[in-house]
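Spend some time on the protein that follows and explain the fold to me:
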Amino acid sequence: MLQQPMTGIAITGSGSATPALAVDNYMLSQLVETSDEWIASRTGIKQRRLADPQTSLSAIATIAAQNAIAMAGITPIDIDLIILATSSADDLFGSACQVQAELGASRAVAFDLTAACSGFVFGLVTAAQYIRTGVYQNILLIGADMLSRWVDWSDRSTCVLFGDGAGAVVLQASEKDRLLGFELRSDGTQNKSLNLAYQGQAKELFEGTTISQGTYQPVTMNGQEVYRFAVQKVPEVIEKALHRANLSVEGVDWLLLHQANQRILDAIANRLKIPNEKVISNLANYGNTSAASIPLALDEQVRQGKIKPNDTIVTSGFGAGLTWGAAIFQWGR
C-alpha cells in the first residue's frame, strides 16, 4: 500500500543577508535637504544597507538561502522548488535559476514571483499549495530586493526609505499543519500610488512600423495614499486570516508586518489592539527592504531566541500593485 504524502506545512529554517555598506540619515542629509530628525520622526528609519556595484541580488539571496537550508537541517540537493520573491532581479527574465545554480540545488525547479512588498507573503501562500497537493516536500522561499538600483537619489520622499537585503525560509511537508490561515488581496485601481514604471519612446524601425524602446524609471510614491491604504486594509486582511485560522488576537505571539514605516506599524497594531511588545520591528537598521523585510526580521528574531518553536506569528505584506495579504503560522516543526 502506497504511503500518502504529508501535506501539512512547517517552516523549519530561516536565513538572511544584507550588504556591508550602512548609510545613516546624516549621510543622506549630504545628498538631499533632510535630517536625521526629519527621517526618523516620520519613518522610524535610522540607517539602511546599500549594495555596491559588485554585489548582485542573487549573491545575497544565495547567502540567505544557505543559512535557511542549514537551519532546516537539509542540503541544497533536497530542495524541490525555489521561489524568489523580488522586484529587482539581476536579470529581467528572473534570478531564481541563478540562485539555484549558485546553491547547487540541481533537483529544484526555480522561478521568480513579483508582488513588490507583498512578495514574501504571496510567495509563502504559493509555496504552500505545492506542499498541500503533495507535489513537493521541501521548498525554499526567498524574499530579496535591491531597490537602491531604482531610487531617485535626489527625491527625498523616496530615497530615505529603501534599503537592500534578502531573507529566506524553508517550508517542509509535515504531519502537523503549521500554516493556519491566510488572505490575499489586490486592487489595480490604485496602481499609480506606488510605481517602478517602464517609460519608452517611439522608435521607427522602418516606414509604417514603430515600436517602444526605453527603460524603467525610478520609484515614485504617493506617501499619504499608501499610508491610508495600509492602515485601513492591513488590519482587515489580518482579521480575515485570523478568522480562517479560528484564532483571536489574544492567541497571537508576534505581529510581523512588512517593515515600511514605523508609524504604519504602530497604527496597525493599535487598531488590532496588539501590544507593542508583540510587534517586531527592525526597520530602524534596514529601512524598507521590500520583499526581504519580513523574512529578514523573522530570521533576526529567531536567531536572537525571541521567536521560539510553536510561537504563533501573524505576518502581513502590503505595497505596490496595490497588493496586500496576511498569513498566520506557527514557527518550527
User: Anything to note?
Assistant: The chain has a mean pLDDT of 95. Residues 265 and 282 are 11 Å apart (CA to CA). The chain is about 30% helix and 30% strand.
